């Protein structure tokens, strides 16, 4: 092979293209991450610390990349075979050099120092992000991962809900600490809301935790980040951070029992007669199941099936009639209800405000 081909090979190097794309995105991350799950737009000190660590590691490794690739390109161009050399008579091998203590010391010490610095910055970030005990004014929520939805239990407030996590933001400029106990009843899940914190696994038989502070109202999205079965991709995380007064109103509403409304009477009888009650709770009725989401205030949620579809009448009917057609593999079995009965049950569910 002609030595001159090597510069063409260098231009085809996948590393080069990865670097080019990486640098473009680094200059403008919003090109691909313009939604509200961007790790580049943290709203908590924890997430900001993780982003800063990312920038620092990227700067260090990017510097190494530039030095190495720079030296490579320099050598490729400087020492390429010039075209006026008669290849038949040219010397085929350059002079060979064996052993150089200064060079060997340099390429051993430099990587050692680099790894040591990386270790220090990562360790500092881990210490910032972890904190074993919740601060006394922390908002504590038990997060329970289930196939394939999220259960939220607020022990102090006595509230149990599903899929949409409401949190208060700190008032008068003081961020609200939030402490999440992470639990699982079946397999390993992972809680990841990139703008709030890094990911942490929820393990069956063990309590993990996560904590962050929050001071900016908004809706922050995330996703289960550990493969947990067929519907792993449909375990959306939705965090509603709201001013304290709104949060307190939400808690007060959630604590109320379900109220009977005439429009839902027929549906309620059907609901209580079918197997629904084995898995679902509607506080104030005989339905006390715990395997499925608490439905006492179902209509206060904007989505169904862990963020898969909007909470509309049409989707409620579809779900009750045949949940498997909406979320194949989910643990809600077919109840063998008629379409008319599904409509009546949806009428009842719509009264659960
Ligand atoms: Cu739960 Cu993946």
Quick rundown:
The chain has 353 residues and is of the alpha+beta class.
Question: Can you give keywords for this protein?
Answer:
alpha+beta; disordered N terminus; 353 residues; binds dinuclear copper ion
Query: What is the alpha-carbon Rg in Å?
Result: 29 Å
β-strand number: 12
Shape: elongated
Q: What's the main sheet like?
A: 5 strands, mixed
Q: Specify the structural class.
A: alpha+beta
Task: Describe the fold and architecture.
By secondary structure, the protein is an alpha+beta fold. 38% of the residues lie in helices and 18% in strands. It contains nine helices and twelve strands. The chain has helices spanning 5-12, 14-27, 45-78, 101-129, 244-255, 265-273, 276-279, 313-326, 339-349, and strands spanning 139-146, 149-154, 159-162, 164-169, 176-184, 189-191, 200-202, 208-214, 218-223, 236-243, 303-304, 309-310. The strands form four sheets. It has a five-stranded mixed beta sheet. The protein has a three-stranded mixed beta sheet with strand order 4-10-9. Strand 6 and strand 7 (200-202) form a beta hairpin. Helix 3 (45-78) packs antiparallel against helix 4 (101-129). The longest helix has 34 residues, at 45-78. The protein is elongated. The termini are far apart. The model is unreliable at 1-12 and 28-34 (pLDDT under 50). Bound molecules: dinuclear copper ion. Residues 145, 148, 189, 224, 226-228, 232, 235 line the site of dinuclear copper ion. Dinuclear copper ion binds at residues 145, 148, 189, 224, 226-228, 232, 235.
């Amino acid at each position: 092979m002609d030595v001159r081909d090597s510069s063409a090979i260098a231009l085809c190097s996948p590393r080069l293209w990865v670097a080019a794309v990486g640098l473009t995105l680094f200059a403008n991350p919003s090109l691909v991450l313009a939604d509200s799950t961007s790790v580049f737009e943290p709203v908590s000190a924890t997430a900001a610390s993780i982003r800063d660590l990312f920038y620092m590691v990227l700067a260090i490794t990017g510097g190494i990349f530039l030095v190495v690739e720079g030296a490579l390109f320099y050598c490729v161009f400087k020492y390429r075979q010039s075209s006026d050399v008669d290849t038949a008579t040219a010397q085929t091998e350059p002079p060979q050099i064996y052993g150089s203590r200064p060079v060997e010391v340099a390429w051993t010490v430099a990587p050692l120092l680099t790894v040591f610095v990386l270790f220090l910055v990562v360790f500092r970030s881990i210490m910032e992000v972890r904190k074993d005990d919740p601060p006394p004014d922390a908002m504590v929520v038990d997060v329970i991962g289930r196939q394939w939805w999220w259960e939220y239990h607020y022990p102090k407030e006595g509230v149990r809900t599903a899929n949409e996590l409401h949190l208060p933001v700190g008032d008068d400029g003081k961020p609200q600490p939030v402490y999440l106990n992470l639990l699982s009843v079946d397999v390993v899940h992972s809680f990841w809301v990139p703008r709030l914190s890094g990911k942490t696994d929820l393990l069956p038989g063990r309590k993990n935790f996560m904590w962050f502070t929050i001071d900016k109202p908004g809706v922050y999205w995330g996703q289960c980040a550990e493969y947990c079965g067929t519907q792993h991709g449909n375990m959306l995380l939705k965090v509603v951070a709201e001013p304290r007064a709104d949060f307190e109103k939400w808690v007060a509403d959630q604590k109320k029992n379900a109220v009977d409304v005439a429009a839902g009477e027929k549906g309620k009888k059907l609901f209580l007669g079918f197997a629904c009650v084995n898995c679902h709770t509607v506080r104030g009725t005989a339905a006390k199941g715990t395997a499925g989401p608490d439905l006492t205030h179902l209509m206060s949620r904007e989505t169904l099936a862990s963020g898969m579809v909007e909470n509309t009448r049409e989707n409620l009917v579809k779900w009750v009639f045949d949940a498997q057609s909406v979320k194949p593999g989910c643990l809600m079995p077919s109840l063998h209800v008629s379409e008319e009965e599904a409509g009546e049950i949806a009428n009842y569910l719509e009264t659960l405000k």
